[in-house]
Design brief:
309 residues, alpha+beta, 2,3-Dihydroxybiphenyl 1,2-Dioxygenase, domain 1, eight-stranded mixed sheet, 16 strands, 35% strand
Amino acid sequence: MVTSAGLHHITAAATSARGNVRFYTRELGLRLVKRTVNFDDPGTWHLYYGDEIGSPGTALTFFPWEGIPRGRHGSGQAEEIGFAVPRSSIAWWSERLSARNIAHDQPVRRFDETVIAFKDADGMLLELVGTDWAGDIRGWDNGDIPAEHAIRGFSGVSLWLTDTARTAEVLTRALGYRSAGKDNGRQRFVAGDGRLGGAIDLRKVDGPAGGFAGGIIHHIAFRAADDGEQAAMVRALRELRIGATEQKDRNYFRSVYFREPGGVLFEIATDIPGFTIDEPVESLGTELRLPDWLEPHRQQIAAALPPLA
């Protein structure tokens, strides 16, 4: 069985492109590595944040639909995105969030990690997770947040479900995850070495179903090294009687999608070709990039997109 190396990216909705860029680049220090459009809705930005090159396991992406209402947190959705920082940086981040007037909870212990919960400008649930392994990964120095304290990427994400059993089956039998124990109402599964983007927590919730809109995750994507690994995962899904879409070319990766039994939209994305395929590392995310089939419409598309600054 092919084992995913963990999360590739997470995609969510936002209510303002400008506010979204400000929060994730200025407050959290992520790099805007790609400014393109939603390929299925070219009148909407698709913004990608991550480490210096948007490595798999670091890429958080948004569709900012201007003025949409906020969504509703609830079952059948991915929630609580965990960002990995060095364990020694938790106190620094707590002071930074306070200094920036970003409301946050007091640190708590979970799975032997220190966690600070907070929300973004649209109410999306975020966490800073202090880990021992994050210090082994080079941080990106954005000039405001020192590299030693920088967010390294995802530690993981939580899924809120009314029934966790069949989702656990998908994780373990199709994607190669393994159980890593329970803590405080969470069942953890890990992939690969369990580090960057390696953890998925399943939380059983009995509340109402969530509602997708601003501040809600649209889908989470799992890593496949290449087309061959992706195809092997699709075959494993078929054995569970779960069908996936045909492969879609997203320019920076190639994807298939499926709805897991708990209701969360899953994607399997290839690591290749990556975000440097159409612009150099030094200038990533500075200009609007379009796929070839949309280039003839560049002027109209650019004119319709809201400003980012």
